[in-house]
Amino acid sequence: MVKHKKISALQKYFHHGKEITSSSQNFENKNAFDLSRLSIGQNFAQGADSRLYRGKYNDQDVAVKIIQVQDEEVDEKSSLARLEKQFIQEVSVLSKLHHRNVLEFIGAFRQEDVFCIITEYLPEGSLRSYLNKLRSQESRLKLQKVIVLALEIAHGMEYVHSKGIIHRDLKPENVLIDKNFLRFGLKIADFGASCEDSSSEIMDSDAGTYRWMAPEMIKGKKSCTRKVDVYSFGLVLFEMVSRRIPFAGMSPVQVAYAVVNRKLRPDIPDECPAPMKNLIEQCCCLDPKIRPDFCQIVKVLEQFEASLAHDGTLNLVQNCISQNNHKRMRFLHWIFKH
Predict the structure, then answer these.
(1) How confident is the model at residue 1 (pLDDT cuts 50, 70, 90)?
(2) If you count Cβ atoms within 10 Å of the first and of the last residue's Cβ in the chain, which end, N or C, has fewer?
C-alpha cells in the first residue's frame, strides 16, 4: 500500500500526456509519456545501474536514461527497491528545475522493472571529456575561460540550492557542455544522488563519488547540508586551474581515508592567482560552516571577471590582500560578504 502511494505521488511529475493509472502491484503510465513518439538509438554511456541512449522525442534530440537491476545483482528485490527510490527521487527533483544551467527534463516512465528518464541531449559531452582533451593536448584553460566556466556552474548550483535541492555528486562528469552559435555554456546533470535540503536521512553508501566528496559525506553524517556541493565545486575549480585531477595517483578509497584522517587538501599550483587560490581553499575548507554559499561564490567570480576585464589580471582583487595572515583572513571575510 505504501508503494502505491509513493507511485501515485509521482503523477504530477510526468509530462506530455494524461494521468498515470496505477495499481497496488505496479503502475501503467504509457499515457503519461507517448511512447509512440519516442525512438531509442545508440548507447553512448553507462553507469553501475543505468545506460544512456541517444533518442528522438517529438523530433527533439533526447538522452534516454534506462535504469534497471543488473543480472549480477545477488539481492534482486532490495536492488529493485533501491532503484525505484532513486528513480522517484530523481524525477521529483528534475521536474522542479528549469534553468539554463541545468539539464532540461523532458519526461519519464516505468515499464515493469525498468525505469526511464528522458532529458535533452547535449552532443558536446561532459566537462570531464573537455578537460581530458585539453590535458592530452598539453593545453591549459586561460584564466578568463576558467572564470566563465566556473560562473556557469555556480549559477546553476545557486539555482539548484534555491529550490531546496542538494546535488551530492557534483564533478566534471556530471557537468555537460551546451555549445551553440551564441554561447559556450555548462549544464548541471545527473541528479540520481540528489536529495531534499531538509532530508535527515543518513547518506546512502553509493551517493556521491569519493574523489569529489566532502569529508562529512565520507563520514556518512546525518543531515549533510548544501555545503557538500560547495566542497565538490572547489575541487572542480581546482582541476580547471591546475589541469590535474584532484588527488591524482590515489584510489578513491585512499582519497576518502586521507581526506578524513589526514585532512588532505588539493595542492594548488603556485602560479594560481592568490584570489583564486583563496576561493578554492575556502570552498574546500574542512568546516562546512566556513564554506561560502553559491550566491557568494557568484559575486566573487563576478568580481574576478570585472578585474580581468579591467587590466587582464586579478590585481583589483589582489591589492586587497595583505601579507599579514590576520588581514588576509579579514580579506576572505570581506570577499564573501560583498
Answers:
(1) very low
(2) N
Residue 279's DSSP bridge partners are none
The residue among 216, 224, 229, 223 whose CA lies nearest residue 260 is 216
Q: What are phi and psi for residue 32, nearest 5 degrees?
A: -75, -20
Report pLDDT for 332.
Answer: 57
Q: How far apart are CA 338 and CA 327, in angstroms?
A: 16
Q: Write down the pTM of the prediction.
A: 0.84
Least Cα distance to 211 among 257, 273, 155, 145 occurs for 257
Burial environment of residue 75 by CB neighbours within 10 A (0 to 12, 13 to 18, 19 or more): exposed
Can you point out the beta strands (E) in 180-229?
184-188, 195-196
Strands 38-46 and 60-68: unpaired
The CA distance from 122 to 139, in Å, is 24
What backbone phi and psi angles, to 5 degrees, belong to 83? -70, -35
Q: Which of 248, 245, 243, 300 is nearest to 276 (CA)?
A: 300
- Chain length of the chain: 338
Q: For residue 113, what pLDDT is reported? A: 86
Cα separation, 308 vs 147, in Å, equals 10
55 Cβ partners below 8 Å, 6+ apart?
38, 39, 40, 41, 61, 62, 63, 64, 118, 121
As separate numbers, helices (DSSP H) first and strands (DSSP E) second, the chain gives 11, 11
* Cα gap 300→303, rounded to integer Å: 5
pLDDT at site 77 = 83
Active-site amino acid positions: 169
Average pLDDT score over residue span 13-26:
34
Strand ranges, E, within 156-259: 165-166, 175-179, 184-188, 195-196
Q: Which three cell numbers stand for residue 143?
A: 584564466
Reported as type and span, the H/E element at residue 94 is helix 76-94
